[in-house]
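In this section we walk through a basic example: taking a raw amino acid sequence and producing a predicted 3D structure, encoded as discrete structure tokens. The instruction is simple. Fold the sequence below.
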Amino acid sequence: MYLMNWLTSTILVDTLRESTNWSKMAKSKKVMGVQQCLLSPDKDLKSILEYLCGESNKLHNCAVYYARQIWFKARKFVTGFALVNEMNRNPHFRAMASEVSVQTCLAVGESIRSFAALLKKSINGELEQKPRFPGYRNPGFQLIAFPKRALKLVDGKIRLPLGLQVKAWFGLKEFFLPMPSNLTFGELKEVRILPRNRCFYVEYVYPISQVQVEVDPLKVLGLDHGLNNWLTGVSNVGTSLIIDGKHLKSKNQWYNKTVARLMDEKPNGFWSNRLAKIT
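The resulting token sequence is shown next.
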């Protein structure tokens, strides 16, 4: 027990230190790219993803509850690091790898910081509508994020940890996701699992180097967006292009008609496997 607590504390300290470095990177306005891929998980991997995203959603609501109590009773804003210190004994926090749980709490802290900035603008008369304190998420799944320090490349696949508690409960300590062929493991900064429309997407976050391009002000390209001709471009150097939009228009009409038929006489918020498949 003492060894587990020591390991957990060590991981928390290292993760918070890395999160501080991420904040410094954000202040330097470093451009980050995100490559999103649709996952086709088998039964076992799908169960793991549903478990992790479900626990992340529950932890998010627990952190929001604590932050709301502090705000409404003491009129104080809770930081993301304070939420990590408060939630590290929460069963949903311990049900995931510490790195993932920390990222979930820090995300709530970012929402609170945004609310504080908007509230200040509202008090100064810069906003017409008064902002609301971040609320609870509906039961379901939420995005989970694995920082670089939690990742490892094994036989061409990315290893993601599940944490000590999951290992003790289910005997599982890790799962694997494919490594994109157009990226290198060294440049990855974060891997995220995004649940959307009853599917799971993996997002690979990596830095993008800004390229300075010299622009000739004498060369001009005019673009016109339409329907049948989705995009028409004409330049003053004798080049032009037309992108046909009829196929895309037909697809969009089919989608709108299908959604209208499936949601006919259904209550607001209705969703089904058929809607998830075509969206």
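Looking at the output, two observations stand out. Strands lie at 32-38, 144-147, 152-154, 157-161, 174-178, 190-196, 199-207, 221-225, 229-235, 240-244. Residues 1-28 have pLDDT under 50 and may be disordered. In the next section we compare this with other chains.
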